[in-house]
């Protein structure tokens, strides 16, 4: 017997053949991205019935292939609003103990919502495979609802996306209209959505718990194997640093640079970040390399105080900033740079159309939209990275821009030729 995925593939294949046979009888060319199907066909059962069956099978197959993470994170705004509601009222964790099924009355009693409200919310998520209802009135957990019951970070991400990112992204057009070509972090969709003149993170800081929720939610995306320190560790010649110094600019707790220091004992590491971040991070220094790791308070918009280091690492820093501010950050390094010093960026490299799978491109474009809405930040293509360094100073020489296979982030190596 064919697997469920195999059955879905067969359904899609059969239904598409039926659609194309029907179109042929009507003298219409095959399905094409460039040409729409005539509207008068949409109500014809010879077209509408196989089309609906194929689309439904495609969505279920997409969910099977993408898993629970995909089911939760790839929803329309209205679908996501209902997912936020079931999380807010803890419906995924309102099942009886050790049970995979529950009636609507049981979910209502455990969540504190009225049964009609629970039923309405749960049934709105069935098409996203958050729950299933194989037997009328009996709700069954899926992998997605199990994740929402057991993974607090995913719940944080749902709430943060619904309250911070979605309202801001829906105001991008208004922000462009109000502040044409602005690169200011307080002239964004977020500012309009929240009626504030403060930057997004300064505004969040006024509300207890809000910055922490944002940070926890975003950490969900950096936990996958594509964000492992090994990609940076294995794809740069750190062994070429002879008694060298690595400055981790905006390095937070130094997770990545400390990993490098532990493998290469000849390297001295200086982790720089804002004072409160540094104060919290000092206690996490591993004892086996504490003599080679220093934490330093530093604002990367001001002149770099560590002169003559071999490598200045910036991991996931510049994407938060528009070109205007990213250039300021790069120029602040210049007084400290010795000839042939390296600047190593660990950032997204957005592919040009056709260079990679459409789904990967789509994800990075979504991230680009989000950082634009929040801070006027930017996820950059190769051409953008090159232009950024050229604008910052002609003495910056881009040596390589590569994304290791398996890594989510690329590695950009730039040499100072001054």
TrEMBL record:
Keywords from the UniProt entry: Methyltransferase, S-adenosyl-L-methionine, Transferase
UniProt-listed SUPFAM superfamilies: S-adenosyl-L-methionine-dependent methyltransferases, Winged helix' DNA-binding domain
InterPro entries linked to this entry: COMT-like (IPR016461), COMT_C (IPR001077), SAM-dependent_MTases_sf (IPR029063), WH-like_DNA-bd_sf (IPR036388), WH_DNA-bd_sf (IPR036390)
Source superkingdom: Eukaryota
GO MF annotation: an example: O-methyltransferase activity
One of the GO BP terms on file: methylation
Coiled coil location: none
Positions of the O-methyltransferase C-terminal domain: 244-392
Any Pfam family the entry gives: Methyltransf_2
Protein name stated in the entry: O-methyltransferase C-terminal domain-containing protein
